[in-house]
Design a protein that fits this description.
Elements lengths: L2 H19 L21 H15 L13 H23 L7 H5 L10 H36 L6 H7 L1 H17 L5 H13 L2 E2 L4 E2 L4 E3 L5 E2 L4 E2 L4 E3 L3 E3 L20 E2 L4 E2 L4 E3 L4 E2 L4 E2 L4 E2 L7 E5 L5 E5 L4
Helix pairs in contact: 2-3, 2-8, 3-5, 5-7, 7-8
């Protein structure tokens, strides 16, 4: 095809495409889920924040550092860059807080938006509160690493656990994302956790509340829903689902948001591979053991073992309290 003919046909195709596609970017259409030129957080920058925080939590494990180098210098460098990046991304995310369905449901009293100065001030507050929690997150991660090391006879060292265990990757990201979720930052917590979901096969909603010394053994296929509450010293194996049994619907048939839909797992519970535990009223009592492939939609008393018979039916065995 001659050069001029190619250019003419290309111009025709682009013209037709533009004519049909442009109306779909209308920024004035409140019901349009994908408007034009959305000012949203950058996934690349959000992931850079995670990388910097990894260096703060695990210096020398995620990227090289020089032996003998003052740890203070490394921390100052990482904290400085992470603060700037997170502030900019939170500023871009915050307007979505007032565009959510939840905010509109509040009626005329709900603010449609904040001006730029108010957004900047709120972003400053959020980022300050988040960094105030970074030392506490690191303390929790130390306990998670210890739980993984002592919980897996195959673990040879803390370094192996930190470098190679997908459960540690997942809980590290979750503890960061959960703090931002708790501070009502839109989008960014989900971007963080969906990134690690794609990398590890472990899906933890940033809203889930997870206690200390948490161990995800193997981890692939684990799903933990938004309103799940997990106590201390809990161990969960691969393929476990902590999910919702049903959803309440509003008068328009849409799921009601903000209700307790996922189970509560008390301290020192072990959940073996493939188990499914559903429902916001379902409580697994302290010290219980849930066997592989068990399906539960009801609560279990403390110190109870639930396993499957060979024929697939479910049997409950009460174990003496410790």
């Amino acid at each position: 095809m001659a050069g001029r003919e190619y250019i003419r046909r290309k111009a025709d195709v682009i013209g037709r495409t533009l004519e049909e596609i442009l109306p779909g970017y209308d920024p004035e259409d409140a019901r349009n889920p994908i408007q034009g030129c959305a000012e949203l957080p950058s996934e690349a920058q959000v992931l850079r924040v995670l990388s910097l925080l990894d260096d703060i939590f695990y210096p020398g494990f995620r990227s090289e550092c020089v032996r003998g180098e003052a740890i203070e210098a490394l921390l100052v460098e990482r904290l400085d860059e992470a603060h700037d990046l997170l502030y900019r991304q939170v500023r871009r995310a915050l307007p979505q807080r007032w565009k959510s369905e939840a905010a509109r449901a509040l009626g005329d009293d709900a603010p449609a938006s904040l001006d730029a100065e108010e957004v900047a001030e709120e972003a400053t507050r959020v980022v300050e509160e988040f960094f105030d929690q970074v030392p506490r997150i690191r303390v929790l991660l130390k306990k998670d690493v210890i739980a993984a090391y002592h919980g897996d006879p195959a673990a040879r060292s803390f370094g192996e656990v930190i470098l190679s265990y997908p459960g540690i990757r997942a809980i590290t990201t979750h503890r960061v994302a959960h703090e931002l979720y708790r501070l009502d930052v839109p989008l960014i917590p989900r971007v963080m956790n969906e990134y690690i979901h794609a990398r590890t096969g472990i899906e933890i909603h940033p809203g889930a509340r997870i206690g200390e010394s948490f161990f995800l053994d193997h981890g692939t296929g684990v799903v933990i829903g938004e309103t799940t509450i997990i106590g201390n010293k809990v161990r969960i194996y691969q393929g476990v689902t902590l999910g919702a049994y049903s959803f309440r619907l509003d008068e328009h048939g849409n799921p009601v948001k903000g209700t307790k839909r996922h189970p509560t797992i008390e301290d020192e519970v072990v959940i073996y591979p493939g188990a499914t535990i559903l429902g916001g009223d379902t409580v697994i009592g302290r010290g219980s053991v849930i066997g592989g492939n068990v399906w539960l939609t009801r609560s279990v008393p403390p110190s109870t073992t639930i396993m499957l018979k060979l024929d697939g039916s479910q049997i409950t065995q009460v174990v003496r309290s410790r």
